[in-house]
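Regression test case RT-17, inverse folding.

Input:
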């Protein structure tokens, strides 16, 4: 696995105020200072009749805000390729924007991927951690064949999205 950075998104739900664009720039400056990252450039755009986007290009990646006043949502995105944990932004965002709740999602940006199990159900998602894709092709009869190196099960055969056998099942 090769890690390239950490990524956080925050959806700030239940905002009733359309903040002035200068507020977002100040919040970005505060986050950059707290995270000890370098702002290279800031680009912003005000939409008509409403909404605003601001993007800070960092030496370490980016910070952005996108507003959806008609939905009462502000979306925030912070990706760092350095040793900075972008979660440092959460307390600053909570303090600056009146809201009902915040939906936080964190991502490790690396070379591992998730393979979603076809038998997941609404409200429950089961996934396999994929370390490597060894083979991925369509058979002569149209089946989707994948041989994946899974973190938990080793080499595993999937046909049409369904796991068939894994190295840990038997002595293969």
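Golden output:
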């Amino acid at each position: 696995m090769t890690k390239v950075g950490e990524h956080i998104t925050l959806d700030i739900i239940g905002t009733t105020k359309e903040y002035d664009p200068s507020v977002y720039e100040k919040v970005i400056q505060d986050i950059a200072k707290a995270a000890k990252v370098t702002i290279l450039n800031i680009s912003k755009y005000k939409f008509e009749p409403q909404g605003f986007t601001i993007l800070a290009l960092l030496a370490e990646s980016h910070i952005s805000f996108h507003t959806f006043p008609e939905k009462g949502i502000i979306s925030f995105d912070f990706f760092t390729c350095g040793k900075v944990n972008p979660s440092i932004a959460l307390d600053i965002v909570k303090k600056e924007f009146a809201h009902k709740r915040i939906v936080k999602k964190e991502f490790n940006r690396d070379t591992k991927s998730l393979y979603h199990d076809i038998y997941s159900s609404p409200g429950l998602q089961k996934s396999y951690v994929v370390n490597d894709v060894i083979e991925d092709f369509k058979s002569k009869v149209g089946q989707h064949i994948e041989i994946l190196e899974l973190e938990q099960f080793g080499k595993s055969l999937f046909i049409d999205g369904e796991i068939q056998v894994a190295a840990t099942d038997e002595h293969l």
